[in-house]
Amino acid sequence: MIRSLYQLTNKGSLRALSFILAIVLTVSIFTHTEVFALNLGGISPIYTLLIFWSVATLWIHGIGLEIYSAIWKLLFLPLLAYFMAVIALGIIYF
């Protein structure tokens, strides 16, 4: 089940999307530090950790590192990272 979910995103165009989202989210965090700290850091540190996890997952997937273990594939599942990145970008910019 996990392998089939991971295979859905193991395509070149989705890897490019991961790379672009990782760049945009990283730049957004560095350029909008006050908004990031006040809107996300003040609510709960768990949101901040989830955003950092999604950035790390998107970088890993976007660069093209191959994950073989099912446990690590579950931990770094790009579908969840896409969802979290879109929410974070929505909070930062809107």
From TrEMBL:
Pfam families: Cyd_oper_YbgE. The chain crosses the membrane at residues 12-30, 36-60, 72-93. Keywords: Membrane, Transmembrane, Transmembrane helix. It comes from the Bacteria. InterPro entries: Cyd_oper_YbgE (IPR011846). NCBIfam families: cyd_oper_ybgE. This is Cyd operon protein YbgE. It comes from Gallibacterium trehalosifermentans. The lineage of its organism: Bacteria, Pseudomonadati, Pseudomonadota, Gammaproteobacteria, Pasteurellales. The gene is ybgE.
